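Input structure tokens:
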């Protein structure tokens, strides 16, 4: 993750996976299971996506795919993107689940 040592974030992903999946199981009735049929498939899909990202992290940084920036000031002009993903919020969501489980 940009701004976070790779080993630390990989540990967070692996260390919190079971807690996140267990919490999802407890609240499975609150999800709409149409595209992803169940909690197990959701877990496999999300882990695969995260590992793909982590494998690309170093190369992605070198090639400018990942840019470290902080709100409220970002290094982009108005309407520069249709969609933006802010990993900061994703990391804290993962860490929050780990702390409360």
């Amino acid at each position: 993750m940009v701004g976070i040592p790779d080993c630390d974030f990989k540990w967070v992903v692996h260390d919190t996976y079971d807690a996140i999946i267990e919490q999802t199981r407890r609240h499975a009735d609150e999800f709409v299971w149409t595209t992803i049929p169940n909690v197990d498939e959701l877990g496999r899909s999300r882990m695969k996506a995260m590992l793909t990202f982590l494998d690309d992290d170093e190369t992605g940084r070198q090639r400018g795919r990942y840019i470290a920036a902080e709100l409220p000031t970002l290094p982009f002009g108005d309407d520069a993107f249709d969609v933006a993903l802010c990993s900061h919020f994703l990391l804290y969501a993962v860490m929050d689940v780990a702390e409360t489980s």
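The radius of gyration is 16 Å. The mean pLDDT is 78.
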